[in-house]
Amino acid sequence: MTAVRPAPPPAAALPPGPAPRRVRPPRWLDLRLLLGVLLVLGSVLLGARVVGAADATVPVWAASGDLAAGTELDADDLVAVDVRLDDTAEAYLSTATRPEGRTLARAVRTGELIPGSALDEPADLVQVALPVQAGFVPPGLRRGGLVDVYAVADPAVGATRTTGGTVTAVVERAPVQALSGRTDGVLSTPTTTVQVVVSVPRDEAAAVLAAIGGRPLVVVVHDSVESGSEEAGSAPAAGSSGRASTGSSRTAPSAGPTD
């Protein structure tokens, strides 16, 4: 006898799955990406502009040391510095200019920016070389300084009616243009001759040489390169010489070295 198995019940119908979505290729022109790039570029440009404005410097010439009015500039007197001058840059000497050989119309201090007005043509000056014994040259004497020069009695010939005890002002507030013959160490003696070149007005050069009268010279160094109201490098007025004494009415600046 054949066994008959009942047929299994029909399976329940499965719910329909979600409809497949079509994968779209990526778009390079994404709005969020574009906004991010623009923000980064704007930040970079703004930062560059701020840094550039803070570093808007120009190279100009400054004085490497104190220089008196009447000093003829050379390369050693100048140092290039970068400074921020804004609208006043044109008033100062740019390093594109070459002021060597020009004469200062006023004094400038160490580190001071040299204005173009300082090179206005001063009075007609000439350079006079004065032989001075090393013992009468202060250690602080240097180019660009301001000096007085006096003629004194020559101890080698003794006091005479003309020179006995007399101190004569040869030149006052003269700018030093050059020094030569100065030596240091064992080769230096008080009798070594040092040539001191100073500037004086052309029409007073003869009076300066006449005031020397063949006598030894003594150099007195001013503490400041400011020449005051009188003309730099002027010869003393007639009758300005006087005998050296404690009661002399002439007041001379310090003869000590300058710092």
UniProtKB/TrEMBL annotation:
Residue ranges constituting the SAF domain according to the UniProt record: 58-120
InterPro entries: SAF
Biased composition, class Low complexity, residue ranges: 230-252
Transmembrane segments: 31-51
Signal peptide per UniProt: none
Pfam families, per database record: SAF (PF08666)
Keyword Cell division: no
Domain of life: Bacteria
The entry's keywords: Membrane, Transmembrane, Transmembrane helix
Region (Disordered): 1-20, 225-259
Keyword Disulfide bond (UniProt): no
Biased composition (Pro residues): 1-19
Name by which UniProt lists this protein: SAF domain-containing protein
Lineage: Bacteria, Bacillati, Actinomycetota, Actinomycetes, Geodermatophilales
